[in-house]
Amino acid sequence: MTTVLIADDQPLQRLGFRMLLESQDDMTVLTEAVNGSEAVRLTAELHPDVVLMDVRMPGLDGIEATRRIIASGDRTRVLILTTFDLDEYAYAGLRAGASGFLVKDAQPEELLAGIRAVSTGDAVVAPSLTRRLLDAYAHHLPSGTPADAPEAADPRLASLTEREREILTVMGMGWTNTEIAERLHLAESTVKTHVSRVLAKTGSRDRVQAVILAYDTKLVKP
Amino acid sequence: MTTVLIADDQPLQRLGFRMLLESQDDMTVLTEAVNGSEAVRLTAELHPDVVLMDVRMPGLDGIEATRRIIASGDRTRVLILTTFDLDEYAYAGLRAGASGFLVKDAQPEELLAGIRAVSTGDAVVAPSLTRRLLDAYAHHLPSGTPADAPEAADPRLASLTEREREILTVMGMGWTNTEIAERLHLAESTVKTHVSRVLAKTGSRDRVQAVILAYDTKLVKP
DNA sequence: GAGGGCGTAGTACCCGGGTATTACGGTGGC
DNA sequence: GCCACCGTAATACCCGGGTACTACGCCCTC
User: Fold this and answer.
1) Is the CB of B209 under 7 A from strand C?
2) Which of A41, B167, B170, B221 has the fewest Cβ atoms surrounding its Cβ within 10 A?
3) Domain end: B82, B104, B136, which one?
4) pLDDT tens digits, residue range A174-219?
């Protein structure tokens, strides 16, 4: 039987979680907390297996509450939930020692599976965030196999021609197609052709994503 | 409709996967491959959305096949499956560019959810491995919580409300208005209102310039 | 000299982004 | 109690961005 503490300032949200968890015969909700400090206090008192922790709460927020619970040496695991998968929240939460990070609009089964996983010592991270974590850190993982390509330049830009790289650079400066055409003495239609090719080659859906890529690859420096 | 290629040397295993996937009305199995080189060749030919890749296969193994598929520049995502969650496999697979790593004894729903996640560009890692990844790397994550850091930041962002800063952040992630609306549970018209206010307050002419500002002010980190 | 990659350019079309305006409920200050 | 601000939302409208397709001249390589 997995014991759970729900920490969320919204009564309806707590109710929803409680209904879901109580419908499972291997879980029970010990109690609820309406803010971070209450969560810390009740955890120290009741030692739940898992704390479902909201990030945004009045007073002590979920991140700081997590940090204190972990620091207490208690064996309680913290699973952070947020409506919003903003990186800073997640990074901060995981740094604080949380065993997981899920978004609230996940499927109920995902949440239940997440609780079971963290209760046994495993960890879970929402897929949307996992992607960003991997993008940022995959190349820092210990190498199990040889054959590392230490990318000369970024592979995502490899297939661009010189001219296309130039176009992408000025896109990164926020120029519109019209401005690019004027300043590079081109027809706007030509600019559009270049832009389309840049998007296709870099796998960018639109201009914004291409600009982000330009920054990420340091083609344009902040 | 998500198109999938199954790469596994065991016929029974392939059959099981095919049965499961074909039972879903949003997935279809394009074809099967019995080893790594076949997987690479068929992927180049058919461009599936997702490759379900076994690690252990005769000839070219799943890791090396993954590396070649990613290196090809194809937009196909690779989801690695293995019987054991041995770290070396996982690290190597993720380094090779895989979008996910799951163990074969996962629940069918987990596998399906994983396929759907990677097909949309997200990523998934088995909980047992996530734990080890976090233990090893959590303290390397970028620091900072949004809660306590009320940005002594850039004056150009000073007049933005909390919500508007959030909107700008996700704009910086390349989300379209439609995506912002969906993921933040807002109406698109509301998103447009927010975006317009952000542009007005930051003096940005359009979305692209706002994103550049987000990078310049480190609101979004490269 | 045939072919291929590249840079240039045009046209037609669609859609998402952005503006302008209005509105309404909640909250906090005075 | 009133007002200001915020977050939410809708509507109508315009225009720039992006796609698809076609085309042509230049240069290089086989």
Assistant:
1) no
2) A41
3) B136
4) 999 998 888 888 889 999 999 998 988 888 888 999 999 899 888 8
